[in-house]
Sequence to fold (425 residues):
Amino acid sequence: MHIEQRQIYFDQVSAAAIAETYGTPTYVYEERRIRENFRRALAAFKKYYDDFRFFYAIKACNNLAIGHILRQEGAGIDAASVNEILLARELGLGGEEVMFSGNFLSDQDLRQGLESKVIFNLDDISLLPRLLEFGKPEVLSFRVNPGYGRSNVGEFVTNAGPRAKFGVHPDQVMPAYAMAKEAGIKRFGAHMMPGSCITDPDYFALITELLMDLIGRAGQELDIQFEFIDLGGGLGIPYQPGEEGLDIEAAAARIAEVFRKKVEEYRLSPPRLMMEPARYFVGDAGFLVGRIHAVKNSYTEILGTDIGMNTLARPAMYDAYHHIYVDGREGEPRRKIGVCGQICENTDYWARDRMLPESSAVGDLVVVDNAGAYGQVMSYQYNGRLRPAEVLVNGDRHTLIRERETFADLIRGVHVPAHLRKNTR
Ligand SMILES: Cc1ncc(COP(=O)(O)O)c(C=O)c1O
Fold:
């Protein structure tokens, strides 16, 4: 995204053209930016450890067009549910190009996961006997809780340590792999996902060390090898203006350094190194375009827009910051203004006291930054509001990649029993 003479552009397409063609609110993704993000990260990791592969955590943005971009770049898929395994299949990916990292899986999930022959990544030791009732996976990985995690999205996305619901407890890592070996499983991997949106390279070195110590000890004690070690996602992007981004070269160098050292220390035959980021690839390549429909001057000034907690849940869910631009007004004098959506909840008053152009007015377009990850996928229909459209931009081309919902989507699958249709009064 860039601003030229106060007009906002996605690649070479103006926000005004998007709004005129597709209406608002609309998610817009820059294809070139996604490819640049992926290539920058892959080059950094391959430079320091050649046997490296990314799996894209499709939960962050599950539009198949976006999935195809990342598949073309060489990513596998990290799936959180059976339906995400099916999304990967739509991309032509299956088997060991898909990692199934669901948690608290049902018997049906376990059965369908086995049938699809993807890599099973179990979130708890208790899942293994249940899985074995249905069959033996070819390759098995455990999601390890290394005892520590961190997140720039606050406590909300700290996925490891004592307060997290995820992963195998550090003390259960050895017994988990022992049980798998005992069951006759011969091919192993290991995984963790302790936190999200981290921009400190040292954090990645620390969590790599924690995981490798647990895995290295299990490998030595049980005499098993690991084909891959997956360090999860968590590569951060800056959300606040002026915030420093992740030095991806430094992160890759620090991870590879610790990884090699631990591989040597525990005499592991060098495993493939994997990561499964999402935010780093798509976060800063996606934007939400909305319109100001009302300006209220009450205790404070509030811009009422068609962007709210229903179209972008992160501010209400995580107290997350997203920068806001007003098309045609950037560069004008600013004052403190609030921004809200159209939902009947006060958590929908999602940006308070923002320094926004004071001339912002009804009819103006607003553009929300860094909305590509955990944006559209978390939108919902509360208050009878419909999910937004999604558009992909490349150069001066723009293509609709998901239609805006209509009223038919609001009542799809709803059945009213005949007796309720009768007029009984
Ligand atoms: C298991 C797993 N892997 C990868 C990711 C991607 O994380 P990020 O977007 O922080 O890279 C997530 C996100 O929640 C996840 O749950």
User: Anything to note?
Assistant: The pocket of pyridoxal-5'-phosphate is lined by residues 57, 60, 78, 101, 193, 196-197, 232-235, 276-280, 373 (CB under 6 Å). The chain has two domains: 2-28+284-411, 62-277. The mean pLDDT is 96.
